[in-house]
Here is the input.
Amino acid sequence: MKAPSLAERLLEDWPAKIVCLVLAFLLFLFYRMSTLDQRYFSVPLTVDTNGEFIPASTYPSMVKIKLRGEADSLYPIQENDISASIDLTRFAAEGEVRVPVRTHLSGSALGIDPLEVDVEPAELILRLEHRVAKKVPVTPDFKGFPETGFELTGYSIQPSEVELSGPRSVMAKIAAVTTEGVDLSGRSSNFTGTSRIADMAPLVSLSGSGRVDYSVAIEPTTYVRAFSSVPIVLESLSQDFESAGDLPEGSLRLRGTNSDLSSFALPFDVLKVDCSNVTAAGVYSLPVTVSAPGRFEVVESVPSEVQLTFRRKAP
Here is the structure.
């Protein structure tokens, strides 16, 4: 009887042999994968846009990367050898889009086999809107209070406005931005400084350095004090004439610091009438002038004019 050839022996029961080979290969892969190590990284997510349409819904700033491979190959990998991004450059209309998160390997992460790379989340659902840019004013965010007896009287900021850009619906709600806190606590004089623009709405970006210079005016607190029944004094009246009736009284309101006003005694001749033009007997309408000290501001003086009757003195 003729012995079977090598080819015949190899082809004998070939379906069973193929199944055995496949099972052996799968067992090899399973064993190899079960012995692979894992490493996890958190990396920033980069968003590539065409500049016209940008995300109008929030998205994660970081994504989680899982690497599987042989220990000797995994552990030399550095975090900056892995990056993640989404590509929005192909979209040309507003609306909701679904995009995969792409991973990129470089440096010590290249040329490793076997190496599995998984990213979480694997894809994002975003709403895209037109990008809008506009300039808005900057206002300071004052904290605390000046020293007792002093008050904030003014400020200036340079630059007074900044340029923002972001999705259309978000930008429509922004009318101004504020600085980080400017502390007034215990201040009793003018001061200057630099502050950053406070955190803005998500998805909005700021053009420039994000810093502003400010100048703040702090001055003593002013108060108003009223004086009533203030005599009106005749000034420069010729010795040949005299008033034909009682002189009226006036009232006065002065503004100044609390310390100055509280101790201020009103001079007798603070309200005056210049009578140098009285050259004959008769009725005259004359203005009333105020001679308050310069450290005070005259808020109100009543009356501003008086009508007086003058007569010649008896010989």
About this structure: The chain is about 15% helix and 50% strand. The longest helix spans residues 14-34. The chain has a mean pLDDT of 88.
